[in-house]
Automatic annotation (TrEMBL):
Domain Hemerythrin-like, residue spans: 14-123
Protein name in the entry: Hemerythrin-like metal-binding domain protein
InterPro entries: Haemerythrin_Fe_BS (IPR016131), Hemerythrin (IPR050669), Hemerythrin-like (IPR012312), Hemerythrin-like_sf (IPR035938), Hemerythrin_metal-bd (IPR012827)
Organism name: Campylobacter peloridis
Family: Belongs to the hemerythrin family.
Keyword Lipid metabolism set for record: no
Stored CDD domains: Hemerythrin
Keywords linked to the UniProt accession: Iron, Metal-binding, Oxygen transport, Transport
Amino acid sequence: MLPKWCDKYSIHNDAIDKQHKKLFELAANVEMISDKPIHKGQVKFLLADFFNYMKEHFADEEKYMAKIGYPELANHQKIHKSIIQSMIDLIQNIKSTNDLKEKLNIIASKWLLEHILQEDMKIEKWHQQKLKNANNPTQKQDKNYDYICKCKGKIHKVTDEIHQKIQISKAQYKCKTCQEYIKLK
């Protein structure tokens, strides 16, 4: 059973939240028809509606990320492109109405909602931290974090920006000396 929209999924942007709510509704419609007899034309219409709305939403979301200066915009755009391409690939290989319903259900649950619940929540987490830093003048904006590697006694001073990339997108950086991934001390 797919989750229903609630405020904990909000990224505190009215336009994007409204689109996310609509995508949750479309996903619920897909789930509703998944085990009911339905004409192939109806499923194709729902699929086309979903596909077109998703493309529009991704474009708007990318504009929003650019506006707030989200550092993982390029990676997020790659994820969007991958979802769209995977959707195109699925659509091209449809064998029956049941196959079409099954693939539409995969799109709704796995790609779309997982994307909103995981990837889009990273945007919100980053943005809230940025707002917190901006509203807290006593907090240093150029804070460094101590990371360690296998080198004995070596400390890597990591900027807040790099630290955020590691925390949000699980990026990994290697020590140039020992070639091991650095870890927060």
